Amino acid sequence: MKTFIKLLFIIAGFSVNAQNSISGKVTDMDNNALSEVQIYAPELHKGSTTNKNGTYILNNVPSGKINLTFSFLGYKTVIKTVNITSDLEVNIQLKETPFEMDEIIVSTPFNKLQSENVMKIERLTSKSINKLGATTLSEGITNIPGVSQISTGSSIGKPVIRGLSGNRVLVYTQGIRLENQQFGGEHGLGINDAGISSIEVIKGPASLLYGSDALGGVLYLNPEKFAQLNSSNINLNQRFFSNTLGTNTSLGYKSSNNNWKFLIRGTYTTHSDYEIPTEEKVTNTRFNEQDFKTGIGYSKNNFTSEVRYNYNKSKLGLTEGITEQTSSKTLTLPYQEIDNHVLSSHNHFFFGNSKLDIDLGYTFNDRQEFEEHEEHHDEDEDEHEEEHEEEHEEHEEAALRMKLKTFTYNAKYHFPKLGNVEILTGIQGLHQTNTNFGEEILIPNATVKDFGIFTTANYSWNNNTLQAGIRYDNRNIDTEKHEIEHEDEIHVFEPVNETYNSFTTSLGFKTSITKNFTTRINVASGFRAPTLAELASNGVHHGTNRFEKGNSNLNYEKNTQLDISIEYKTDHFEFFANGFYNHINDYIFISPTGEIEDEEPVFSYIQENARLFGGEFGMHFHPHPLDWLHLKSTFETVVGKQDNGNYLPLIPANTWKNTFRSEFNIANWLQKGYSSLTLESTFKQNNVGIYETESPGYNIINLGLGGDITLKNIKFNANLSANNILNKKYINHLSRLKSDGILNQGRNIVLGINFNI
Predict the structure, then answer these.
(1) Which comes out higher in pLDDT, residue 116 or 278?
(2) What pTM value is reported for the model?
(3) Half-sphere exposure at residue 546, Cβ-oriented, CA atoms within 13 angstroms
(4) Do residue 261 and residue 322 come from a single domain?
(5) 82/87 Cα distance (integer angstroms)
(6) CATH number, domain at 323?
(7) Domain that residue 454 falls in
């Protein structure tokens, strides 16, 4: 930790003296000036907006090649690569488009616009999530085709990408990987959506870019941007949830000048038990969360840096069924208490036509689980002991407590561009320790070390792009021996010392057959080393109500996936079709043994070759001259099977979503107004794992309404959403409460208000 802090100070102290500026004017195709156009330089974490004359200026810009994006609602985004040697003038014309703005994708190696990427990346903004009325970030991302969640009530959700979840989906936040004991079935995402600007999803093996654990895909969370150049902003966001009587309050401040940028945000969330359509509350699904984010950025000439810190404290109830009916937000046993710290440093060094990126990160996750202890009393037990039972429970120590410390590093060097060829090479790695402090142990004390080296190249000609890369990874896992006495039995954790090595490759091709027709073909391999839980767990996991036994003889998973994407786009119609086939060697999954230990069914980890296939299909129709109308439809499907013919567990059911959306303005008091009606049809899931049951299909209707409101001199954004408006009774196939027959959430009306001062 001390070494990491020293590195931050060394990086922050690096500077040189030359200064450049970029200025210009932005107009439409008729040369009319456009005001409030956003100009942003991703490498510099710096942006500006055009004034009423359409002009802008960015000061203190480093020498070398950088990307500039020009984006404005209702116009096609333009990305411009400029070579800075002195002050530069860049004038841009924007073309109108009825569709969503094209954005630069950060999670890919060369940071291109979505339309220019070889890989198809899905993107969702935080504003979109707020409009949907999602209770958590994990719930919000399920609106991306091909993405779903394994949920435990309304508070705990784990992302699922095309049927793969857990450690097969790597989560990146603040530019570094998030490590928070994500192996657990009831371990949620652990990130508050406040202070997140957008979410990018790579669907498929991304091991080439991110190493082990990216076998199934990557969830990349882009943090809130700093303020525009030479400006300050105060933001207040408030949301109310009818179903859980919940509130989410977030207050942020940010400021920026030529060299320095600063932001700070605090968020408090609290919810009571969620209500099902029978008007019953699911006991102890309540939760509360405190979140703090801050960041500081510095840029001068050939160097830019940003340091960010996020502290998240969550208390999550673990339900044991429908019992006491209350609106209390105070948790009862059992529950989890999680402290998560994320410290990151993101840096760019410019060397003329080349660039070096260095990311350093430190995460500390302190996870505690408190559970009820059975106590046997004589019939003549005095009342005094009963009165103090609750007080005793409040002060007792956690039954399970794990502290996970992870240091990560990532360096990428972008070589000077050779004609139409771009090349980068890099190294990545981590050092991680897991330590137990509770009376119970689920996974042993351990040390994990990762190292990877990779290179990738991008070649563009005419309307074609070819991208290829190769990577080598090494992971070492070393655990301690433990002997734990529990109910007159000794649970032995035998030491494990394993090393896993793998080469991964990727090859992608994108071509524009016509002006409106684009095709992408990608083949990639990935690998995932077994987790500590899969190798060495030996105890009761109370969140999943089972005794889990690891298997130290597990091999690492290796997969190859083929993706084919087709897109057709005109000024008023969009269509896409994404298909994939994913073959996984030595797929690891947990399976019941039929035994009972510590009064819980025993589950152990086994392996079998498997395959997943399916895709996402959709259209967006914006008929002319009905400029206010948008019709969207998406369908997603995935099938997962073992080579022995059995289906894989926890595979989402087929889903078809249809949205009718209108856009409007009313006088001067309502601008950028919208209303939406969505029918979400989930089909019956018959293809189930050996210990699962089938799930019936269901239909849900959601409503939305909102826009920018001006009342006298007060301006704010408001949105109202009504999810499951008909209070439909249903159980999602990926709900962990399904085995207990507990319904999903009933009608939920969410009101959100957002002020910018």
Answers:
(1) 278
(2) 0.88
(3) 22
(4) yes
(5) 11
(6) 2.40.170.20
(7) 121-756
